[in-house]
Write a structure and sequence with these properties.
The structure is a single chain. The protein contains 15 helices and no strands. It is mostly helical. The chain has one domain. Helix 5 runs antiparallel to helix 8.
């Protein structure tokens, strides 16, 4: 008898393997667990997608990664001069530049996650239609890219804090990781839900641009919380503070804006942030279930 060739042996072993249905995520708990396991098994792919996004953004650019610092610094300059000095906001806010840059750093992180995540599935239509892979990796890759880009801006912020000599109290630094967690959780929640909806309704990405523009001015980035507390009170102020991005931005300012340590902040701020994070995790779970329900027809819609 002729010896079995390696190709025949491999075909025999493949034929003996049981059939497995890819992408089966039925069940609220079991389906979520399967999704997480699928993403974890393809964590190297997730890393490659993040690397690809970063390289593609600065491809053929002479300055490369340095461009990630230009936009936030330009924004800081505009808000510092126009809002701070021309409109007089800086007169009532000490160390206005640090105050604004702290808010812009927090806002830039969630904005990039939401905007990039919304179009992530459509932008990767070729991969979605050709091979099986957990579709969650695309909004996750966008979130990872946003974290990398924001880390550079955060490093500039820390450098500016050190240069000014206004070092924040170590007891207040605990607000910072909580604020970052809130931004990532809510940003990823929006990215998962909106990326799935955007496959079926392409107007979503345009609505997101309008919504984020309004959300920017609804957050205490170029004006202080003190102005809001003086303008509204009672249930209107509670509605304003129900915005998780507002709490996260206040957390950034509380941690890094040492000159504003004596400025008014919401009562029970740490408790509010913890409650917001818990609600965000629940919303993230719900957004993931929506994503799973909709992803079955991604290939056909694309």
């Amino acid at each position: 008898m002729n010896p079995t060739s390696p190709v025949d042996e491999r075909a025999r072993r493949l034929a003996a393997e049981p059939m497995r249905e890819l992408g089966q995520k039925a069940g609220v708990v079991a389906g979520t667990k399967k999704s997480i396991v699928d993403v974890w098994r393809r964590r190297e792919l997730l890393g490659l997608l993040i690397n690809r996004e970063i390289k593609a953004k600065y491809k053929d650019s002479s300055f490369g990664f340095a461009w990630s610092m230009v936009k936030p610094l330009a924004q800081l300059l505009i808000y510092f001069i126009v809002i701070g000095h021309f409109l007089g906001a800086a007169r009532g806010i000490p160390d206005f530049a640090i105050f604004v840059f702290a808010g812009l750093t927090a806002w830039g992180l969630v904005l990039e996650i939401v905007n990039g995540g919304t179009g992530s599935i459509v932008a990767n239509a070729g991969l979605v239609k050709k091979v099986y892979l957990p579709r969650e990796v695309f909004p996750l890759a966008t979130a990872g890219t946003a974290v990398v880009n924001s880390a550079i801006q955060f490093a500039i912020l820390v450098f500016a804090v050190v240069v000014t000599g206004r070092i924040p109290s170590p007891s207040l630094l605990g607000y910072l990781p909580l604020a970052i967690a809130i931004l990532i959780v809510y940003g990823l929640t929006a990215a998962l839900a909106l990326s799935a909806l955007n496959v079926y309704m392409r107007d979503i990405q345009h609505l997101v641009e309008v919504a984020t523009f309004l959300a920017f001015w609804a957050s205490p980035i170029v004006y202080s919380y003190e102005y809001v507390a003086q303008a509204v009170s009672g249930w209107l102020l509670e509605i304003y503070l129900a915005n998780p991005v507002t709490l996260a931005i206040l957390g950034f300012q509380r941690s890094l804006w040492a000159a504003g340590a004596a400025e008014p902040y919401p009562s029970h701020m740490l408790l509010r942030m913890c409650a917001s994070l818990v609600v965000g995790l629940v919303c993230l779970f719900a957004a993931h279930r929506v994503f799973i329900r909709l992803e079955g027809n991604f290939a056909q819609e694309l």
